[in-house]
Amino acid sequence: MGARVVGTCGAGGWRRARWRAGRASWAPYHCRMLRNALGKAFRFLGYTVQYGCIAHCAFEYLGGIVVCSGPSMEPTIQNSDIVFSESLSRHFYCIRKGDIVIVKSPNDPKSNICKRVIGLEGDKVCTSNPSDFLKSHSYVPKGHVWLEGDNLRNSTDSRCYGPVPYGLIRGRICLKCRTQLGLYENVEHAAAHFNCYSLNFCLLYTP
What we know:
The chain contains four helices and ten strands, in the order αββαβββββαββαβ. It is α+β, with helices and mostly antiparallel strands.
């Protein structure tokens, strides 16, 4: 009578079988976790891009709140004054003589300056300092403006670096509030009042 052979599985075989079964059961769970994590990351990235675009458009086409620092626009704008600048005027070429504007510095594009528009293209302007005995004059070239600080004796402006291209104008100052003896007592109060327009804070130097 023939002997029947029954297959057996040793301890190592059982461990391998259990490992394969456990791996098969955990694989879908890990895939779901990975998909959820990637989905959240992409959604967060999408919201960040959307909010960034909205903020950029608001700052670029509406305006922002600016904290001024420096003596060159005294007495009109004092050190630490808070001003609101609007950007629509520069987009529609509505900048006029006498306007106070925020401009990218011709000497340092990473910084902004605050000056008054003294001349537009074609205007004859005085290029001398107040202390000069002999006065010199020049004409503003096309597509440029002539900028000067109200504090002529303590201002670095077009008398030093010449006419400024119109494209460097970032905005026109239309409202001012003082941080010490003005309408508002501190920066936080002013920011809370203007948050319906913009929360764009930047330090504006007026050398």
